[in-house]
Amino acid sequence: MPSRTKTAPPAKSAKPKSRPRMTLAEAMAALEQAGSAQTRKTYARHGAPEPMFGVSFAVLKTLMKRIGVDHELACALWETKNFDARNLAVKIVDPARMSPADLDRWAQAPNAPMCGSYVAHLAVEGPHARTLVDAWRRAPAEAQRCLGWSLVGAMAMCDAATPDAWFAERLAEIEKALRAAPNAQRAAMNQALIAIGCRSASLRKSAAAAAQRIGTVEVDHGDTACKTPDAALSIDKAWAYSNAKGFASPAEHERSRESMRTRC
């Protein structure tokens, strides 16, 4: 009987060599090449400061995936003061290595409202959110107070450890101060109100009642297509969507996802 020839097992493909780390010069060159005049105009209308190249979020996402987490590069990008570089920095930085002083310094830097909340999410992904949130909300500068309320919203959605009673106190602050707050702060407080209403069933009820008492929130968004969300309606929609996906709350749904800082 003829012997059978054994087939050799397929050769294992060699593991690809790790990609060399991107230097600051390479990252800045990639950002500059990807910039466009039209995107610069769009960002400027939303309050982004110069200098900037005008890099789309799609390109930033591609660069973020290519670089991965690189804390040193992120810090170097931030120090350039370039808007696009800072936008990339918040996506590749290591939250665990950010000190309260680092976060405070980043919070005080000029930024666009559409990107400022990334620093808040960076804080809530590390251990210092509760250390900073009160100081930011009470800061002299409106931009930092806005970031403080963005941090309240990020904590409501992502920090499962903070008790609901703490957020109920923030609801009382919002109801008392929102209508008299400066323009940008009204927008940030309204978003925090929505986030608190998405945290738990009891806070949903409290936030909906507060939104009804506050009434329509007017915010001037300038030369943009942005609109101020109706808080009560937004809370109801978020609950319906998350419940339909099998989650107990929109906050639980959010905690199951990639960080908003890196996915958007």
Summarize the structure in words.
The protein folds into two domains: 22-93, no CATH class; 112-263, no CATH class. It is built from 15 helices and no strands. The chain has helices spanning 24-34, 37-45, 57-67, 71-79, 83-92, 100-107, 113-125, 129-137, 142-158, 164-177, 183-197, 201-214, 231-244, 250-255, 260-263. It is globular.
Task: Write the topology of this structure.
Layout: H1 24-34, H2 37-45, H3 57-67, H4 71-79, H5 83-92, H6 100-107, H7 113-125, H8 129-137, H9 142-158, H10 164-177, H11 183-197, H12 201-214, H13 231-244, H14 250-255, H15 260-263
Helix pairs in contact: 3-5, 4-5, 7-9, 8-9, 9-11, 10-11, 10-12, 11-12, 11-13
Descriptive labels:
single chain; 264 residues; mainly alpha; 15 helices; disordered N terminus
Short description:
The protein is an all-alpha fold. 62% of the residues lie in helices and 0% in strands.
- Helices and strands, in N-to-C order? HHHHHHHHHHHHHHH
Q: DSSP strand (E) fraction? A: under 5%
* Helix-strand makeup class: mainly alpha
Label the overall shape.
globular
Helix content: 55-70%
N/C terminus separation: 66 Å
In DSSP terms, counting alpha (H) and pi (I) runs of 4 or more, how many helices? Answer: 15
Give the biggest sheet. Answer: none
Total strands: the figure is 0
- Are there runs of 5+ residues with pLDDT below 50, and where? 1-17
